Q: What sequence folds into this?
């Protein structure tokens, strides 16, 4: 009877360890918490871009991975591209910005 309890505890512990490590981050994969944080950063950056009178455009795409924001899409001038990068950097939680905006 005691051996059965010990075996049960072992498998429950093994399951918990596997479950916890499954949520851990790697170099190419975010943890659940990082994913949620990055989603919040993306939303804040998009809102900041839409609130800026110079940037009220929907042509700027925003993606975030581990706090690094990537801007992509098309803009009319280099000044708009630089302003979008500046606005993105000003959002709390942003570690870096990759500006891949293309001036058309």
A:
């Amino acid at each position: 009877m005691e051996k059965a309890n010990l075996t049960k505890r072992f498998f429950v512990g093994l399951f918990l360890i596997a479950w916890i490590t499954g949520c851990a981050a790697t170099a190419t994969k975010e943890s659940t918490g990082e994913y949620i944080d990055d989603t919040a950063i993306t939303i804040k950056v998009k809102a900041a871009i839409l609130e800026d009178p110079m940037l009220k455009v929907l042509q700027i795409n925003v993606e975030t991975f581990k706090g690094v924001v990537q801007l992509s899409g098309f803009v009319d001038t280099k000044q708009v591209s630089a302003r979008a990068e500046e606005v993105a950097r000003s959002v709390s939680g942003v570690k870096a910005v990759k500006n891949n905006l293309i001036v058309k």
Summary: Strands lie at 60-65, 68-75, 96-103.
